[in-house]
Amino acid sequence: MPPRGSAPDETADRRRLGVQDRGKNAKNYPGLALRTTFIVGYPGETDAQFQTLLDFVGEMRFDKVGVFQYSFEPGTAAEPLGDPVPREVKGERFRMLMEKQQIISLERNKTFVGRKLDVLLEGFGQGVSIGRSYRDAPEIDGLVLVKGEIHSGQIIPVRIDEALEYDLKGTAVTKKKSK
Asked: Is the pTM of this model over 0.70?
């Protein structure tokens, strides 16, 4: 299976060591799936820093992105920072980042239409099997929806027929019988 990387970031401040090379290195590994998680509205986050994050996500074109709004929690290391970013601002930043990533995710998913992916089947019902490819973290990322009810627990080749923002739809590839 191609490698899959995950690197959580609270901010996309490009001065952080090594971040600027991540995108260049990804191009050296065809099939690499990059995913990350961001927190928006962290105490002290400025409009300029958030714009840097939006630009960074646009440049990196991650396959999968998780976004959380900062939540003040007493007793944590961040408690002294308080919760100075208004809830409305956090919500707007969350919405903007998710909308940007949805567009990127759909574009990335469309590159798989017509290709075959190995899919680990995890369940089925109502005429559809549900699984995930090497690009999908369990219970976090999207799914691969496969036509037909196929028993769980096996890895099967699936031809991808359709791309959605977070999921792929496909058909199980059956081996042709030789005569």
From this structure: yes
